[in-house]
Design brief:
mainly alpha, 2 domains, 4 helices, 58% helix
């Protein structure tokens, strides 16, 4: 849901910037403001699937790294507890 709202907001900001003609400054500031939360969400998602957060660095490999990360992100999380903590979807 985080990425969905991020993309929708970036699309709206891009549309507004196109009308105003600011050259992408607002979108760049928004992206910079959400850089650390985005990294945190990516690491949390990798931990949910039982993988190390360091695998997020695969995104630095052009094209192939992004494809690998997308595959990791869409996988079902591990059932129950794993090495990174309890299952966030578990019933409390």
């Amino acid at each position: 849901m985080y990425i969905l709202f991020y993309i929708i907001i970036m699309f709206v900001l891009g549309f507004i910037e196109g009308m105003i003609g600011t050259g992408g400054i607002i979108g760049a500031l928004f992206g910079l403001a959400l850089l650390l939360p985005s990294i945190g969400v990516g690491i949390r998602r990798l931990h949910d699937t039982g993988k190390s957060g360091w695998l997020l660095l695969l995104g630095l490999i052009p094209l192939v790294g992004a494809i690998i990360l997308i595959v990791f992100f869409v996988q079902e999380g591990t059932k129950g507890d794993n090495a990174y903590g309890p299952d966030p979807k578990a019933l409390s």
